[in-house]
Amino acid sequence: MTARARSEARRAEIVRAALEVIAERGYRGASLAAVAERVGLTQQGLLHHFPTKEALLVAVLQDRDRWDAMPAGRLRLDLLASLVEYNAMRPALIQTFSALLGESVTEGHPARAYFTERYVEVRAGMAGVLRAEYGDRLPSGLTPERAAPLLVAILDGLQYQWLLDPESVDMASAFRDFLTLLGESAD
Length: 187
Fold this sequence. Notes:
This protein is mainly α and 187 residues long. It has nine helices and no strands. It has helices spanning 3-29, 32-38, 43-49, 53-67, 77-87, 91-104, 112-134, 144-164, 171-182.
């Protein structure tokens, strides 16, 4: 294994450990020392790979987005239902994302700009999904751009409810019920 490959493997290990620590403690409660300890490094050794806690946070968020990446134009409403099912198999990742999202609404949080821009992109992507399915107007008369924030709210809201009470909230079924409300088949 080359030195570069070892460094990349170590960075990936650190990002996974950071994801776990953030899931357990939240971003503000997570420390570089705790992440370093989890991967058998000193804090100085971790700083060699990620010079700041904010740089590590951005790497965690970018990795999360890569896991969910779908080529532009390939996302459809029925594939969103599959994504909801997939997310139900990754509670730690969903918990971390949700915790970071919640924390990011505070002034000065290092992930605030990231999430703000991400939601601009997600809403635009959802508007594209809705436009591909319904054209310029949904059956309700809303434009895809007006309905997109509602679709995103359903997805995120279901995740929060599921995280709080997974025995009572079936994300996949609830999302399929929402698709039925839009006029989609529940199959």
